[in-house]
């Protein structure tokens, strides 16, 4: 697998964003620009998590682009905690699309975990910039005036739930000490889909910038909820394929499985074309089954 990528830095929405790209490796008509796929990573990942899909899809004629989102990796991490709402991140992505594709162009989008949440919001705010979406692991959660996010998680899981703990500053220090830099132990058993070199790549980036930016996404969940009150009845009106692993904890959140399959998900995402539940995989579905996920993405986008 050719793991060489082009890297660039783009000024967007008041920050400098690091972007990895892999251009099509197949010959085509030079007068026709290749379709673009924008990949959005989750926590605690980076652009790097999409390396398998970028290689596979670029070999099939797509221009594949994956940024480090605001606060991650080599992208700027604003100091202000409240600079990490979904509105900020969607603004970054619109600036990125304008810069690398054009200010009137649409792109295909693929998201996972926090990247899936941001993708849902991108489609809510700017459906005019998205051809179609393949989203993974996190379903669209319509705005509910009675369900402030952190209060809801506390009610279900208690104060020790990781999202609740992420609201506290000291958790940043604990994460950094446990995961980053020289505390990483090469003898730690890794899942089969994650190599030692993969972990060392992540460590090198988090050792440099820490976890404050990524954790700030969680610390802005309530703020984003407040800012999105005008979208109480909004629907996602772009074509969507949703993929989830049957071992993913998000699939087993109380009420989630029923919501996905009883028609309510479709009612909020009316152009939902397909829901795929893959057996035997957990949360990091695109890393655990890279070839299968690449095929799902290609098969869906090929219809547009």
Give structural attributes:
AB_hydrolase_fold; 304 residues; eight-stranded mixed β-sheet; Rossmann fold; hydrolase
Topology readout:
Blueprint: E1 6-12, E2 15-22, E3 36-40, H1 51-58, E4 63-67, H2 86-100, E5 107-112, H3 114-125, E6 130-136, H4 149-157, H5 162-165, H6 170-179, H7 196-209, H8 212-219, H9 221-227, E7 240-245, H10 256-261, H11 264-268, E8 272-278, H12 285-288, H13 290-301
Parallel strand pairs: 3-4, 3-5, 5-6, 6-7, 7-8
Antiparallel strand pairs: 1-2, 2-4
Helix pairs in contact: 1-13, 2-3
Describe it for me?
- The model has no long low-confidence stretch (mean pLDDT 89).
- The longest helix is centred in the first third of the chain and has 15 residues.
- The protein has an 8-stranded mixed beta sheet, with helices on both faces.
- It is 38% helix and 17% strand.
- With 304 residues, it is α/β, with parallel strands linked by helices.
- The protein has a domain of 205 residues: Alpha/Beta hydrolase fold, catalytic domain (Rossmann fold).
- The relative contact order is 0.15.
- The two termini are 27 Å apart.
- It has 13 helices and 8 strands.
- Helix 1 crosses helix 13.
CATH class call of the domain at 6-141 and 233-301: Alpha Beta
The CATH homologous superfamily name of the domain at 6-141 and 233-301 equals Alpha/Beta hydrolase fold, catalytic domain
Named CATH topology of the domain at 6-141 and 233-301: Rossmann fold
Question: Do you know the CATH architecture of the domain at 6-141 and 233-301?
Answer: 3-Layer(aba) Sandwich
Structural class: alpha/beta
What is the count of helical runs? 13
- Counting DSSP E segments of at least 2 residues, the number of strands comes to 8
From the alpha carbons, calculate the radius of gyration and give it in angstroms: 19 Å
Q: Shape, please?
A: globular
Largest sheet: 8 strands, mixed
Strand adjacency order, main sheet: 1-2-4-3-5-6-7-8
Gap between N and C termini:
27 Å
Helix content: 25-40%
Low-confidence parts lasting 5 or more residues at pLDDT below 50?
Answer: none
Strand content: 15-25%
Strand and helix order? EEEHEHEHEHHHHHHEHHEHH
What is the residue-averaged pLDDT?
89
Pfam family, one: Abhydrolase_1
GO molecular function, one term: hydrolase activity
Organism: Arabidopsis thaliana x Arabidopsis arenosa
Protein name: Alpha/beta hydrolase fold-1
